TrEMBL record:
Residues 4-72 form the HTH gntR-type domain. Keywords: DNA-binding, Transcription, Transcription regulation. The keyword DNA-binding applies. This is GntR family transcriptional regulator. Pfam families: GntR. It comes from Streptomyces poriferorum. PANTHER family: MANNOSYL-D-GLYCERATE TRANSPORT/METABOLISM SYSTEM REPRESSOR MNGR-RELATED (PTHR44846), TRANSCRIPTIONAL REGULATOR PHNF-RELATED (PTHR44846:SF16). The keyword DNA-binding applies.
Amino acid sequence: MPADARFRRIATDITRRIQAGEWPPGGPLPSRVALAAEYGVNAQTVRLAYVHLREAGLLDGEERKRVTVAHPPAMRTLTNVDAEWPYSSETTDTRARPATEELAARLDVRPGVMLRHESMECLEPGGRSAMLVSSWWQGRRRAHVSFTAELGVAPLREGQAHALGLLVDSVAYRVVRTRLDVHGAPVETADLILPLDRWIIRL
């Protein structure tokens, strides 16, 4: 197994064990040497897993010092799904793509028509990912005067889980937001993916 796959597999398993309560928030994790022996890998592989989990906000502690489980971040409340994100964000994908049946229905276009697309990762002030937003529209972006929003839940795909520091197939909030023009016609639709452990939704 490639080294990259090994440390990601170990990071995923450590995340599972934290979520199961094996190591509580604020509590120490075993040393890299101890975990390396448990997983049958080099201590460097465990170090890479720890670095990955620190970047994802699941662990606290600096290099060569005691590593502890991070306390859960403060909960945010989402009340306006059309508000601008007040902190930094990163655009992660802008490739155009054909409209699926679902997107075609949301935008009132033909399935297969090419849509503009943007995926964005909204970051907390400390750099941790707070939510993911994927938007689709046809042609140039147009102004909107209102929007609709539907709240549900959905399992995280691999890329989403990696960005949010969660396990694949973990359940997250999914808000479907569709922006409307002055005539009530859809001009843009988006999926907002929000981790259950970081958000309260009040629409």
